[in-house]
Design brief:
There is one protein chain. The protein is of the alpha+beta class. The chain has helices at 3-17, 104-119, 137-147, 161-165, 196-207; strands spanning 23-27, 33-37, 48-49, 62-70, 76-77, 83-84, 93-99, 125-131, 153-156, 173-177, 182-188. The chain has a seven-stranded mixed sheet.
Length: 208
């Protein structure tokens, strides 16, 4: 039996049984197992993190809050200028990516986020690309259309008010929001959003 087959079988076993003990295990390409432990009530604010080996660093900077916290109402619009809100997506697990066309790492993430949205389409996860371009929706729409992005919910905030409302300190920043509109945690910086450890994280919160 090949090592790849062994890793695959182990991964299936872990996904089936890990939730019993409150852990998420991630089997990386090298066969190394990483884990994510949901923070307890005693966890210190902004310190519970994904534990990732050096070959799977995608969520190394993801910080989980000790308890989900409400997300402020965001003043955002759709591409055609209509008012929109995250509240309208209540009941879904939201991956909200704040980006701008002038941000090179943001642009790099878009295909990965689109692939993530396609993977979880109809499964209780909505991936939102919230552009902060000062010029409005036109530039963002042009970029996403040229890239062939089709699965993301596209929202825009040329005022930058939404970024201030959630306390952003830079781009890209991605929030994980639960079905009740509360922020579970966030990642400031770039990541591969279609990586196995991201899938494990979302799968965990879909089941809990």
């Amino acid at each position: 039996m090949s090592s790849g087959s062994t890793v695959s079988q182990f991964a299936r076993f872990v996904r089936r049984h890990a939730v019993v003990v409150g852990l998420i295990f991630v089997v990386t390409a090298t066969g190394v197992v990483s884990l994510y432990r949901k923070p307890t009530e005693q966890s210190k604010p902004m310190t519970a993190k994904i534990e990732i080996d050096n070959d799977a660093p995608q969520l190394a900077k993801f910080v989980t809050h000790p308890a989900p916290k409400p997300v402020a109402a965001l003043d955002v619009i759709t591409a055609d200028g209509a008012a929109a809100s995250l509240e309208a997506m209540a009941g879904e697990l939201l991956v909200v990516n704040f980006w701008a066309t002038w941000c090179a790492p943001c642009r790099k993430e878009m295909p990965q986020l689109d692939a993530l949205a396609a993977r979880y389409g109809g499964r209780g996860v909505t991936v939102v690309a919230l552009s902060l371009d000062r010029s409005g929706a036109a530039k963002g729409e042009k970029f996403l259309n040229e890239l062939g992005v089709t699965n993301l919910v596209r929202l825009y905030d040329p005022s930058y008010k939404s970024a201030r409302a959630v306390g952003l300190i830079g781009l890209p920043t991605t929030l994980l929001v639960d079905g009740a509109g509360r922020e579970i945690g966030r990642l400031a910086g770039e990541a591969d959003w279609d990586a196995p450890e991201v899938h494990a994280l979302l799968d965990y919160y879909l089941q809990n």
